[in-house]
Request: fold
Amino acid sequence: MALAINVSSSSSSAISTSSFPSSELKAPRIGSLKLSDRVNVSSASLSLSGKRSSSVQPLNVQSITKESFVPSQASSSMVTEKQLDVVEVEDFEELAKSLETASPLEIMDKALETFGNDIAIAFSGAEDVALIEYAHLTGRPFRVFSLDTGRLNPETYRLFDTVEKHYGIRIEYMFPDAVEVQALVRNKGLFSFYEDGHQECCRIRKVRPLRRALKGLRAWITGQRKDQSPGTRSEIPVVQVDPVFEGLDGGAGSLVKWNPVANVEGNDVWNFLRTMDVPVNTLHAAGYVSIGCEPCTRAVLPGQHEREGRWWWEDAKAKECGLHKGNIKENAAASVNGTSSSSSTVADIFKSENVVSLSRQGIENLMKLENRKEAWIVVLYAPWCPFCQAMEGSFDELADKLGGSGVKVAKFRADGDQKEFAKRELQLGSFPTILVFPKNSSRPIKYPSEKRDVDSLTSFLNLVR
Reply:
């Protein structure tokens, strides 16, 4: 989508952002500047000034209307004539391609240069503190906002305070509507998300406050990476027209979304944070990688994907809170629900010759047996699930280890048409689910741990088989 860019500049001289050294980037000082340029954005065009300067405004402040800048016909003769200059036409798809191999610092600098005061960094209190460091390194003024859901970890609040002092900034906090939170908790309790999914709570505590914040901006900067969530973030560009939220002028296409670390792997982000000695959330040292609200975040074990620590009771590929729901395409959503027509074309997993592949009839027969000659351990899986893929090696190794031992190792594909059956009859909560069928009991026992290495599975099996 090509965006036509125009300039409406005042007769007053522009204030150069380069006159402020990075060491003096204090939010109160930036906020004292007077607005001298106006940037007009619609769904089809962005207006940028060749000499642009602007003041810091809180994210929820009502913007000055266009009428304040455009005189009526009757009074036009009394106003100094303003010159309109076309600076450039910005096609963000082409810009994303041109920046595909750029460094995060280059991308951040381009974002801040383009949008100035009309862009802000979304900070969650996790490793996305790297965004603030990149912004600081550009030497340009920048804004940071965060969503305080009211249920963050104490360690996250302490990091907010540390970051503000470290960079000399003031984070612009957004809060959920108290009446909406009160109604949710009174009607459904404090932990309803464990029973009916996290979307409702996230919509009230995160999505709606974010929507209010973005209505005061023309662009925002996120810490999304392609490797964070294989099911929803694998194709995010470094810059895009936001497909979901609206910006200051309203309407589709009125907001631009920047993802400077989209192409950076998690290990490289952490190498950068250590090298620059950036303050980080102390929860990371306790095994937390992806950090959100306290009830919905937990530590992950070595070898587990970072998003496995978020909403662990739900399907692996559905792990978006709504802030980035534009990442979820229709076919991806179908895959989340196990109904994708292409899911059958995904290469199968757990290929050891010692792993028995059970059909629907086969696992129903296994459930009916009350006195089995052998114990069984069965994984309920979906081949597209990254967490199932991650445990393939250990489960195949387990099957080879138990070959001829009197324990059968099996797999049952439980997505697609089999998902409802598996949820109803086999205790399927999320993929993968591991069941042990003891020798002398028809009722399977669900493996309760996220530790899926050979030793942990063998130990559990020996206790219950």
